[in-house]
Design a protein that fits this description.
about 45% helix
């Protein structure tokens, strides 16, 4: 019987890579995004029948999260895993960033995943098992010009990870985070080629990590190898912060 894992932001980029990887590993992925993408539909068609489902939901609608989780439980049954990947990657200097944009970053990157985790973790605690993985970023502990608010949201999620691991560990639920470095995704599309090359040169391995590398880390934490790992931040950045 396939174990259900909710993956947010599953329609593209890192989220899609995670969804594909977990489906290949025998999980049933419940992909969440505002709307499906052609890439997700293609992955769904290529996967084992029933291994990838899609549930449209806008996580900015924080008031609807409790009902959404209840509906997922009714439709799919017990949820074993949750991957909080969805995030807004808006850049901009704090001094000139519009207040509504700051509020959006905080709502989507912090408020929404905390609420989603709250309602999913309640069921995990009663079930006596579960795996939660939050997707952070090295920006949360290194900083980067023009990403002060984004960095703040990722720092918040990593602090949330460590404390929640203490709260729910006693009932068999693990909570970890994966902190990717810069990689070629839509979130880094604004970087010039020269900037990406410079970042790669600074890494110990002289390259950028890929979404598939992040997916492999999440897969490990969801699998048997991750059963006694909790409260950790796994960095996947080709040695950029080594």
């Amino acid at each position: 019987m396939m174990r259900n894992v909710i993956v947010t932001g599953a329609s593209r980029g890192i989220g899609l890579a995670i969804a594909r990887r977990l489906a290949r590993s025998g999980f049933r992925v419940l992909g969440v995004a505002r709307k499906a993408s052609e890439d997700y539909a293609a992955a769904q068609a290529a996967a084992t029948p029933g291994a990838m489902e899609f549930a449209p939901f806008d996580l900015a609608d924080v008031d609807g999260i409790a009902a959404f989780v209840a509906g997922m439980r009714r439709a799919h049954g017990k949820v074993f895993g949750l991957v909080n990947n969805a995030a807004v990657g808006t850049e901009g200097l704090l001094g000139i960033m519009p207040d509504p944009r700051i509020e959006e970053l905080l709502r989507v990157n912090v408020h929404a995943p905390i609420l989603l985790t709250k309602y999913v973790a309640r069921h995990m605690m009663s079930d006596g098992e579960g795996r939660i993985v939050n997707i952070g970023s090295i920006i949360g502990f290194t900083g980067y010009n023009g990403l002060a608010v984004y960095g703040a949201t990722k720092s918040a999620m990593m602090g949330f990870t460590r404390s929640l691991a203490r709260e729910v560990g006693r009932v068999g639920v693990t909570v970890n985070a994966v902190a990717p470095g810069f990689m070629s995704t839509e979130m880094t599309a604004g970087l010039e080629d020269g900037e990406r090359e410079q970042i790669a040169r600074r890494a110990a391995l002289k390259r950028l990590a890929t979404p598939d590398d992040v997916a492999a880390a999440v897969d490990f934490l969801m699998g048997e190898g991750g059963r006694n790992i909790t409260g950790t931040i796994m960095t996947v950045d080709a040695g950029a912060t080594a």
